[in-house]
Design a protein that fits this description.
With 140 residues, the chain is α+β, with helices and mostly antiparallel strands. It has a single domain (9-139), classed as Electron Transport, Fmn-binding Protein, Chain A (Pnp Oxidase, Chain A). The protein has helices spanning 9-20, 58-65, 98-107, 109-114, 119-125, and strands spanning 24-29, 35-40, 43-44, 49-53, 68-72, 83-92, 128-139. A 7-stranded antiparallel sheet has the order 2-1-5-6-7-4-3. The longest helix has 12 residues, at 9-20. Pfam families: PNPOx_N (PF01243). Residues 13-137 form the Pyridoxamine 5'-phosphate oxidase N-terminal domain. This is Pyridoxamine 5'-phosphate oxidase N-terminal domain-containing protein. InterPro entries: F420-dep_enz_PPOX_Rv3369 (IPR019966), F420H2_bilvrd_red/Heme_oxyg (IPR052019), Pyridox_Oxase_N (IPR011576), Split_barrel_FMN-bd (IPR012349).
Length: 140
């Protein structure tokens, strides 16, 4: 099972970013072999990252064909605070649990409001759940 060593400064920073950051970059690989990074909203539940997508997006096709992905946070302006998680992604046809939805909606309440969307609007539009299980962490 993947764990983050929060006793180190690096691990503590990554744990804080997973809890506090609003956006990370999800990189899938297209059929041409080209990496395809996309900024996404996410929730870290301690085991996996939850990402919602609109249906029929390229990232979903990429994950179905090539489930290895990476995610990374924005670095500082000078290239510091790099953190990259890699692992396996799966499109979950059963969708989120009510608890997962509630936590996600609370995290993005301000973001949804800025888009003039309710949580129900968001989940109707972004109806596909991606679950990412990390197995490696690197960075500095």
């Amino acid at each position: 099972m993947f764990t983050i060593d929060t006793s180190t400064a690096f691990g503590a920073r990554i744990a804080k970013q997973l809890a506090d950051e609003q956006v990370l970059w999800l990189t899938t690989v297209g059929k041409s072999g080209t990496p395809a990074p996309n900024p996404v909203w996410f929730h870290w539940n301690g085991r996996e990252l939850l990402v919602f997508s609109q249906p029929a997006k390229a990232k979903l096709h990429n994950i179905e064909a090539r489930p290895r992905v990476s995610v990374h946070f924005n670095a500082t302006f000078t290239g510091g605070d790099v953190g990259v998680l890699s692992g396996s992604a799966v499109v979950d046809p059963s969708g989120p649990t009510e608890e997962e939805k509630t936590v996600y909606d609370a995290k993005y309440a301000e973001g949804l409001e800025s888009l003039s969307m309710t949580p129900a609007d968001f989940h109707a539009d972004y109806s596909v759940l991606i679950r990412i299980t990390p197995d490696k962490l690197r960075g500095f």
